[in-house]
TrEMBL record:
PANTHER family: ALIPHATIC SULFONATES IMPORT ATP-BINDING PROTEIN SSUB, TAURINE IMPORT ATP-BINDING PROTEIN-RELATED
GO molecular function: ATP binding
CDD domains: ABC_NrtD_SsuB_transporters
Keyword line: ATP-binding, Nucleotide-binding, Transport
Annotated ABC transporter domain residues: 4-238
Name the UniProt record assigns to this protein: ABC transporter ATP-binding protein
Domain of life the protein comes from: Bacteria
Xref: InterPro entries: AAA+_ATPase, ABC_transporter-like_ATP-bd, ABC_transporter-like_CS, ABC_transporter_ATP-bind, P-loop_NTPase
SUPFAM superfamilies linked: P-loop containing nucleoside triphosphate hydrolases (SSF52540)
Pfam families per UniProt: ABC_tran (PF00005)
UniProt xrefs under Gene3D superfamilies: P-loop containing nucleotide triphosphate hydrolases (3.40.50.300)
Amino acid sequence: MSAVEVSGVTKVFNQGRTDEVVALSDVDLSVGQGEFVSLIGPSGCGKSTLLRLIADLIAPSTGTVTVAGKTAGAARKEQAYGIAFQQAGLFEWRTVLKNVELPLELRGMSRAERKDKASEMLALVGLEEFAGHYPAQLSGGMQQRVAIARALAVQPPLLLMDEPFGALDEMTRERLQSELLAICATTGTSTVFVTHSISEAVFLSNRVVVMSARPGRITASIPISLESRDEAARQSPAYFESVTSVRQALRGAPLKSAS
Ligand SMILES: Nc1ncnc2c1ncn2[C@@H]1O[C@H](COP(=O)(O)OP(=O)(O)OP(=O)(O)O)[C@@H](O)[C@H]1O
């Protein structure tokens, strides 16, 4: 069963009004179990809209979305996915530990159990020493790691991420990319990841889905096969070939892999 199945989805905002926007048109997307898929495309092509549809934060105008075989709404109620956005979105008045505990609290988990689980998640992102700190005492990269720990706390089979590293410096970003891959490999989590960065998409993904603007459509789906996902991979010929393929697809050039 697919982790995510988007079929024939169209999303029209402000339908029938003068400011009507067709944000997505006839989108089909299937994400396999444990697969890491990045969405890339020009500003306004509907990447965030597609992610929000999968998360059931908005409803499609036509078409269907299922997450692990359930409707997107049922999946949201069961916390079948974790979400992380560009802004870490932490609660300033809660400690780091209490932030990570929040989704577990909402699940009704006992105090002791959720403390253990949240501590385990903080260890996974290398922040166990900062459990008692408040978000304002952490750097942007550390806050983003807390947000990832929180998204993973309920051990969702699916992670939805919208430019989670967009506001970070290059070095921090690369470190977090590696951490994220390690976490996904350990937990077997499937991921849908929105980014503007071709290199980030190629390094992280099993597949890069390229979208075009007005109306947002999927124009290419490029499988990425790197031998490893370590620092050496960023210098490998396969990596540079994939970067070129994605760049050409973004420019609308014919694709070798699509022929
Ligand atoms: N709530 C809304 N109401 C009206 N229009 C919207 C709404 N949300 C998004 N849109 C429009 O839908 C289109 C797609 O927006 P979306 O944010 O999904 O694009 P994006 O690819 O994520 O862009 P970016 O890369 O700039 O973040 C845009 O034209 C946007 O203005």
